[in-house]
């Protein structure tokens, strides 16, 4: 993987190159933003407004403070246009909208709209409305792009309207009105679902849904007119005079539409897995005790729960780790976990829609603008509980490849579960297919595991002969 451009003692963020007013760079775990003359002036305008302090106190925006540019390791000498540096509070783990559940994207949309409404009361607005300005810090979204805050220029429309439609409204409407998960579309269209793609996806009558006529059909009409170089349409648009009241009315109308949207994706079998699994109650308790015992011993700083389902073991891990990444390929399971965390004030868990067999890759310019999932951190502990047999039988992934993945992740410890062919869940997986997995045996699994890891503990669950392992990576 090609490294981002290096600065002495600093690394420039590979995805921060579009803003003419500055860019983000790092020193270890610290996050900085280098500012040009215009960027520093814009920052000062915002910081001098009471809006800035209110938003920070309410944790609506990431905290920032000015720092001595001379301490920036010669950054001003390397980039003469830089005249100021600010430091920002660090987000523990960066996530992207194609990894969010429905309610995560919806909450991010409402946060953006509420930020616009509050900013308007102080004469400010947002220069754009991209999903990438939002991160999840704890159980709620937070806005991270301070330079996007700017004084409202009288007579101008909402600059981020089209971007908001493509990155927030269209994906949410796709799931709400058509039952189609939006994650793969946002991964394919990182700038949001284009209008010409959304129209056929919404379907012949879909535009009649609340708000869709205005925000899809009329927008399509205007875009077509401009692309056709229609002088009359352009002239009429340029003579329109907007006011902050007009912008506020549009934002309020959009907020009403977003608020009414709810996921209508097909009911997930996996979202109810914990109620329908083949464990006995004592085995469930034994598995929970095994996981908790080793977390208590390890005291991890971070845990990745891969194949987390609705987060049963993520909820245990959050008692011991500052950060738990709870990842599952099923959007409804992840959404259920997110709602649970939101409603119960749980801030240590970040739920993500993510398929272990196809994790988010590097995307954008030079494949570095949006980092791949495996490049965004190194956990202390990885869980693979009730996941191995799905990888092997559903996706034909050999043991060797599973342990190679764990080597890439570089977790110090792995807590995983071997499920034998005699288990009822495995029998269901193999019910309608030929058993071509003679290599799937406990001895073959242990042989591969112990090439890379040493055994810390092993516990067999008696009824189904499932086996739990706590392994430690060799060399640690």
Structure write-up:
- The protein has 476 residues and is an alpha+beta fold.
- It folds into three domains: 6-90; 98-260; 270-473, Rossmann fold (3-Layer(aba) Sandwich).
- It is 41% helix and 17% strand.
- The protein has helices spanning 37-47, 50-57, 75-78, 102-120, 161-178, 183-188, 195-202, 212-227, 231-238, 244-260, 273-276, 281-298, 312-317, 331-343, 388-395, 399-409, 424-430, 442-452; strands at residues 6-7, 10-12, 22-27, 30-35, 64-67, 84-88, 124-126, 134-137, 140-143, 149-151, 302-306, 323-328, 349-353, 381-384, 413-418, 453-460, 467-473.
- Strands 13-12-11-14-15-17-16 form a seven-stranded mixed sheet, with helices on both faces. The protein has a six-stranded antiparallel sheet with strand order 1-2-3-4-6-5. Strands 7-10 form a two-stranded antiparallel ribbon.
- The mean pLDDT is 88.
**Which structural class do the helices and strands define?**
alpha+beta
Average per-residue pLDDT, rounded, comes to 88
Helicity, as a percent range: 40-55%
* Rg, Cα atoms, Å: 25 Å
Strand content: 15-25%
Our count of helices gives: 18
Count of spatially separate domains: 3
Calculate the terminal CA-CA distance, rounded to whole Å: 25 Å
* Topology, number of strands: 17
Summarize the structure.
The protein has helices spanning about 35-45, 50-55, 75-80, 100-120, 160-180, 185-190, 195-200, 210-225, 230-240, 245-260, 275, 280-300, 310-315, 330-345, 390-395, 400-410, 425-430, 440-450, and strands at about 5, 10, 20-25, 30-35, 65, 85-90, 125, 135, 140-145, 150, 300-305, 325-330, 350-355, 380-385, 415-420, 455-460, 465-475. It is α+β, with helices and mostly antiparallel strands and about 475 residues long.
């Amino acid at each position: 993987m090609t490294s981002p451009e290096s600065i002495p003692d600093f690394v420039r963020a590979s995805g921060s190159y579009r803003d003419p007013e500055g860019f983000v760079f790092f020193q270890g775990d610290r996050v900085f933003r280098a500012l040009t003359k215009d960027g520093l002036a814009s920052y000062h305008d915002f910081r001098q407004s009471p809006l800035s302090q209110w938003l920070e106190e309410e944790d609506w925006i990431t905290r920032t403070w000015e720092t001595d540019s001379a301490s920036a390791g010669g950054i001003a000498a390397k980039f003469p246009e830089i005249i100021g540096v600010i430091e920002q509070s660090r987000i523990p783990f960066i996530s992207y909208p194609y990894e969010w559940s429905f309610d995560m994207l919806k909450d991010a949309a409402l946060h953006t709209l509420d930020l616009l409404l509050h900013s308007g009361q102080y004469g400010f607005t947002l220069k754009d409305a991209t999903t990438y300005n939002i991160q999840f810090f704890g159980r709620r979204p937070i806005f991270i792009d301070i330079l996007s805050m700017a004084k409202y220029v009288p007579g101008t429309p909402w600059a981020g309207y089209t971007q908001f439609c493509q990155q927030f409204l269209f994906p949410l409407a796709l799931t709400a009105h058509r039952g189609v998960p939006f994650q793969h579309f946002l991964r394919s269209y990182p700038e949001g679902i284009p209008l010409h793609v959304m129209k056929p996806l919404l379907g012949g009558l879909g535009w009649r849904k609340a708000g869709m006529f205005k925000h899809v059909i009329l927008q399509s009409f205007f875009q077509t007119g401009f692309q056709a170089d229609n002088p009359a349409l352009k002239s009429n648009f340029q003579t329109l005079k907007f006011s902050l009241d007009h912008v506020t009315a549009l934002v309020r109308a959009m907020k009403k539409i977003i608020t009414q949207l709810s996921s209508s994706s097909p009911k997930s079998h996996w979202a109810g897995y914990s109620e329908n699994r083949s464990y006995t109650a004592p085995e469930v308790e034994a598995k929970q005790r095994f996981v908790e015992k080793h977390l208590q011993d390890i005291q991890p700083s971070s845990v990745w729960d891969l194949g987390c389902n609705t987060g049963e073991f993520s909820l245990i891990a959050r008692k011991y780790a500052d950060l738990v990444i709870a990842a599952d390929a099923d959007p409804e399971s992840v959404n259920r976990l997110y709602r649970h965390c939101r409603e119960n004030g749980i801030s240590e868990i970040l739920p993500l829609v993510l398929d272990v067999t196809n994790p988010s890759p590097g995307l954008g310019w030079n494949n570095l603008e949006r980092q791949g999932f495996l490049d965004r951190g190194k956990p202390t502990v990885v869980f693979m509980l009730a996941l191995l047999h799905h990888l092997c039988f559903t996706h034909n992934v050999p043991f060797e490849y599973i342990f190679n993945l764990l080597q890439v992740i570089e977790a110090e410890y792995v807590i995983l579960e071997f499920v034998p062919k005699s288990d009822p869940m495995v029998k269901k997986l193999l019910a309608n297919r030929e058993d071509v997995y003679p290599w799937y045996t406990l001895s073959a699994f242990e042989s591969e595991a112990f090439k890379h890891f040493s055994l810390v503990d092993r516990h067999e669950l008696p009824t189904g002969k499932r086996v739990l392992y706590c392994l430690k990576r060799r060399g640690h």
